[in-house]
Design goal:
The protein has 26 helices and 32 strands. It is α/β, with parallel strands linked by helices and about 775 residues long. It has 3 domains: about 325 residues, Rossmann fold, CATH 3.40.50; about 180 residues, Dimethylsulfoxide Reductase, domain 2 (3-Layer(aba) Sandwich); about 130 residues, Barwin-like endoglucanases (Beta Barrel), CATH 2.40.40.20. The strands form 8 sheets. The chain has a 7-stranded mixed sheet. α3 packs across α19 and α9 packs antiparallel against α12. The relative contact order is 0.17. It binds ligand MGD (2 copies) and molybdenum atom. The site of one ligand MGD has 32 residues, from α16 and β18. This is Biotin transporter BioY. Its cofactor is Mo-bis(molybdopterin guanine dinucleotide). Keywords: Metal-binding, Molybdenum, Oxidoreductase.
Length: about 775
Amino acid sequence: MTSRRYNAAHWGVYEVQQGGKDGITLAPFAADPSPNRIGLDQRSPDVMRLRIVGPAIRRTWLDRKTRGRRGDSGPDAFVTVPWDEAVEIVADEYRRITSTHGNEAVFGGSYGWASAGRFHHAQSQLHRFLNLSGGYVRSVDSYSLGAGRVIMPYVAAPLDTILNEATSWDVIAAHTRLFVTFGGVSPKSAQVSSGGASTHRVPQGLHRAAAAGVRFINISPVADNIDTGAGVTWIPIRPNTDTALMLALIHEMDRTATLDRAFLESHCTGAEQFLAYIRGTTGTPPCDASWAERITGVPSATIRALAVDMAATRTMLNCAWSLQRASHGEQPFWTIMALAACLGQIGLPGGGFALGYGAMNSVGSPHMRLKGPTLDQGKNPVVRFIPVARIADMLLAPGSAFTYEGKTHHYPDIRLVWWAGGNPFHHHQDTNRLRQALRRPDTIIVQDPYWTPMARAADIVLPTTTTLERNDLGYATLEGMVIAMQRAADPHAHALDDHAILARIAQKLGFLSAFTEGRTEMEWLRALYDGFRTGAAKCNVTTPDFDTFWDQGLLDLGAHARPKVLFEAFRANPLANPLPTRSGRLELYCEALAELDLPDCLGHPAWLAPTEWLGSPLTTQYPLHLISDQPATRLHSQLDHASLSRRAKIHGREPVYISPCDAVARNINAGDIVELFNGRGACLAAAIPDPAIMPGVVRLSTGAWSDADGLRDNHGNPNVLTCDQAASGLSQGCAAHTCLVEVRLFTDPIPPVMAFRMPTLESAS
Ligand SMILES: Nc1nc2c(c(=O)[nH]1)N[C@H]1C(S)=C(S)[C@@H](COP(=O)(O)OP(=O)(O)OC[C@H]3O[C@@H](n4cnc5c(=O)[nH]c(N)nc54)[C@H](O)[C@@H]3O)O[C@H]1N2
Ligand SMILES: Nc1nc2c(c(=O)[nH]1)N[C@H]1C(S)=C(S)[C@@H](COP(=O)(O)OP(=O)(O)OC[C@H]3O[C@@H](n4cnc5c(=O)[nH]c(N)nc54)[C@H](O)[C@@H]3O)O[C@H]1N2
Ligand SMILES: [Mo]
């Protein structure tokens, strides 16, 4: 593998070959057993047309005489200006805001996936810049795992431990007999890893397990989120009710005395308090199978049979991340751990539980965990923060209180919002509310390669390069490779790297040398690689020097892979290898959580009805539960304008999957344009009746570029419908999957999709 050229993307590695229209052609990575096509045509005219060619300032912002809350920012008409002028405008505005309102008025959370590459990582660059100039209000946790990341350290271990040490696929094939998953093992989601998937192992992992005789049961509102190459038993379940089913399985095992009492005694704490709740001796109804049937829609006989089946054999339990992206999203993660504890197989090969096989390629990887090359972001002098999904609350209600992990905090009063590498009009819930919230700051700055909906909503837009237009190091945890991402094309038009943009602004503000440390891009890569090398050496991993690595094109760390069994050491000796919980054990009753005395997260796993679900009164108005899952043909909103994503649309609109009976009841046929609506908004989409969707559920993937037409989205972005509320007062996590809607055939004249339009651009003169 010498002197090949590679590039890394979150969804995989490319081989970069000479030739083709703009001098390069991207081919799938030859070493990847399951490469995908996302991004292969990222240089196509459809995609390049939406590149931002030069810095652009909103006309209404430029014309405004005095600065203050931006209010209704008017049409998306921009004036393109030269870099020198843009840099001066940004520096002046940053100085004005921080000197008048302090750095607590700057929101630099800048959540988002940006691109692969450890040096040019947009958020890291922005955070380093802001930290060196007084700091910023940051965001904590992620949209991915808001509720889950907060709860798991209390009751088992930090989520990263559970993900990084997840039992590897080889062990599953060899030892698991029954694999029960809540929310599938989505082949579409497993296409990516944050920082860059290298070789895709999940399709193979599933197929090999099935070929080795592992039986699969998928408990899920949709059937098409797993492919083992063999039969999978589908148990349809009402969305957001999995916790009730898990509790009933425990009840059934308790009733039939198949709980592993010895394991609960030796490795857990609080089993008696938890079982008292399960049995209904604490004032709530017993969590028995018929109770769960009423909540989940799963027949009680199925629940009873499943409990017997699981207890009789080596069983692996899996829970998709989507389950915790919901009202009371902490509960399914905690309860599946409790269920696995009751089965007593945690720490045994092929038994126990995992959180998120299929959520990313990395879960179930045998690769070693090494600290990747990392850009030092410095220290943030501002202590204020928000849980990431509370952005609209913060902007709309400065000074008001919120709780997080048992403490009360207050929202700051934000004047400047600065985003690099994320798209809130993709990721945030209730985008109509978000639009209102974004009227509150004085100024919004966005760095992005493309005219995304967020760029069009900004006041100052700074065009950045893409990974092919710069040199970088590709590395993702547990992917087992470091990629020499060698620049393959010139920067598009006047685009600059995020680092170069911020360096220019830092120079204007007087801290250039602190920001760049006097290094060129290649000197940074060398320094970051050397840092990685030193860390690897401490873990007995020898690596070539930078020049050799760069010339080779990639570094394969596969020799250090090993089979993994989650919590193996803890199981073998819980006293010598305690968990980092208060008790050192798995907590089925958690005193630390009970002490917080929260109404929406108790001291034990519990069924707490979601704010919206198929059992709530709101179903009389909005009888369908909307699942807004991750898209198969793109990463979030990235490359929605590329052909793979566009080809999956119907009449230019996102497909919405609906059960055939719900379609018939609404007179909806395949390909019809329908309107999904609720009290928050509406969107158009193209209907696909599909028996893989259970009745009462619709599935509309995220990622269609928002195309607002009043309160309606014409393109099919589900976040115009989702609810901007927290999973709980513990985590304040994103609850996107808690959402009721109604669907009707759209009989009005069908409006065009304008999502991929360009804003109006004028030149400065
Ligand atoms: N309804 C609903 N909503 C959800 C979810 C859900 O399940 N349902 N899932 C949530 C989850 S898990 C997540 S992680 C979020 C994802 O939300 P985001 O991460 O915000 O989505 P992306 O589309 O990946 O946005 C990345 C942006 O970075 C830009 N970019 C790429 N490379 C660069 C670069 O080098 N420099 C700069 N400056 N910009 C760059 C891209 O053009 C794009 O605009 O969405 C969340 N939203
Ligand atoms: N191609 C592609 N892959 C991606 C991404 C992408 O944008 N595109 N995004 C990545 C990111 S940032 C993340 S965080 C991960 C997220 O990974 P996940 O959270 O696992 O992905 P989702 O597609 O949101 O949901 C997984 C499955 O759960 C099901 N589901 C939804 N609600 C429920 C429920 O209440 N109960 C049950 N039992 N099942 C339910 C959905 O139908 C879906 O099939 O995916 C990553 N992978
Ligand atoms: Mo995510």
